[in-house]
Design a protein that fits this description.
The protein is an alpha/beta fold. About 45% of the residues lie in helices and about 25% in strands. Strands 3-2-4-5-1-6-7-8-9-10-11 form an 11-stranded mixed sheet, sandwiched between helices.
């Protein structure tokens, strides 16, 4: 419910956001589109929403509200606790107006202008995670791959339960009582570095199974990223178990020596093949 999008291009970001808004509208949620004053949000959504079958009239009906983040910052002082209190109030207002819930989205420019500094931004993002868990408020946060590395790594860690990157995605899922990190798509030298903070954060949250059954490609850089993340585990904890690896991935894990790490092992099905 608290998703991070790392878009490959502005066009992909616009289409992804429009599709996400379409889903929220279909669920009868009120959408708060947070934007920096430099963005012509009405023009952006006016062009992208019809492409996913949403009438731009939602921009004037009250269901999709454009929120200038400088105004929200002036109203709250840019502190994360005040911003979260505001969102709780907005959720109550949306419910009283007959909406099924509240959905929030904003890009890096919006997030950096709604908060007074990066410390408050970190608190705000973690607060959005609490809102998702406790109140069911959905958020789509967007940070480009060329964002400052330390900031992007922190955002990847905060959102480790649900990340959509350029050509890979991860989601924490519950399978037979076991929280697993399900990986989809392709990991290579161009994006594997962004995979590391996600896996480390998942491990820190107690995840010990990585489901690779939908990972269609992984090169040596992806293997190294996985080992680097797993090696951060304390020596007295359970290792990370990789399940669902196909023949190529399983072979690479063996040939690269990745399984020599005390912190990484294959699931039973893969080690028996």
């Amino acid at each position: 419910m608290h998703k991070l999008l790392v878009p490959a291009s502005p066009a992909l970001e616009r289409s992804s956001v429009a599709a996400w808004i379409a889903e929220a509208v279909g669920r009868r949620e009120k959408v708060l589109y947070k934007h920096a004053p430099t963005e012509d949000a009405a023009a952006v959504l006016g062009g992208s929403l019809p492409e996913v079958g949403v009438d731009p009239a939602v921009l004037t009906s009250g269901q999709v509200q454009l929120a200038d983040t400088t105004a929200l910052r002036a109203r709250t002082g840019g502190g994360h606790e005040a911003l979260l209190a505001l969102h709780r109030d907005q959720l109550g207002e949306a419910t009283r107006a007959g909406f099924a819930g509240l959905a929030l989205t904003g890009d890096a420019a919006a997030m950096l202008t709604i908060t007074c500094d990066e410390h408050e931004l970190a608190g705000y993002e973690r607060g959005l995670e609490r809102l998702a868990v406790e109140e069911g408020v959905r958020s789509l946060c967007r940070y480009a791959a060329d964002e400052r590395q330390a900031l992007l790594d922190d955002m990847l860690a905060v959102h480790h339960r649900d990340v959509v990157d350029d050509v890979w995605s991860v989601e924490v899922v519950l399978v037979d009582g076991d929280h697993r990190l399900r990986v989809r798509g392709e990991l290579d030298f161009s994006n594997a570095g962004r995979f590391v903070p996600v896996v480390r954060a998942a491990l820190g949250a107690g995840v010990r199974t990585l489901d690779a059954s939908e990972l269609v490609f992984c090169d040596v850089a992806g293997i190294r990223a996985l080992v680097s993340a797993a090696d951060a585990l304390p020596p007295d904890t359970l290792p990370l178990t990789v399940t669902g690896a196909d023949g190529v991935l399983a072979t690479m894990l063996h040939l690269t020596g990745a399984l020599n790490s005390r912190a990484l092992q294959m699931g039973e099905r893969e080690t028996s093949t």
